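Handover notes (outgoing to incoming on-call)

Open items:
1. GNAT family N-acetyltransferase: sequence verified, structure written out, both below. Nothing else pending on this one.
2. Nothing else urgent.
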Amino acid sequence: MSGVAIRTYADTDRAAVNAVALAAFAQYADDYDDWPSFGTGIGRMADLAAVGDLLVAEREGAVIGAIVHVGPGRPRSAIFPGDWSVIRMLVVDPAARGAGVGRALVAATLERAARAGAPAVGLHTSPIMATALRLYEGIGFRREHDLPPIRGVPYARYMLPAGAIDAALARLAT
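GNAT family N-acetyltransferase structure tokens:
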């Protein structure tokens, strides 16, 4: 992952983060009911900086990925307990995939969750997002239960206990 830096979002990143989110989700456009409406929401990823720690992956001055860590006590979906950390919207520019950008972004959120003292880290994802799901399960996230479909796409909630964060970070580093 040479030349990639993970840093905190700045307001000047807004357009780039939103564009990367749309590019990352574009492959799923045919899977979601009412993609135009759903895509509009995806294209506002930078708005999540208001409720969490939006982190960006940057290479040579260009934003190539992003993720959000929602710490304990911050606003979140009712599907997650209030004292958990939550990972939202891991996105990587399709042209930058396979270089460890997603792994670095997930590691940064897990480090924040550990510092926040969260008893667990949660996320929701779908089987259509097979690469992300393999990453999450490979570092120790376990599927807890199905969630109602989102725009026709199945989702489930996944959880990593705080005691497993160090092992997950070690797996991400290899």
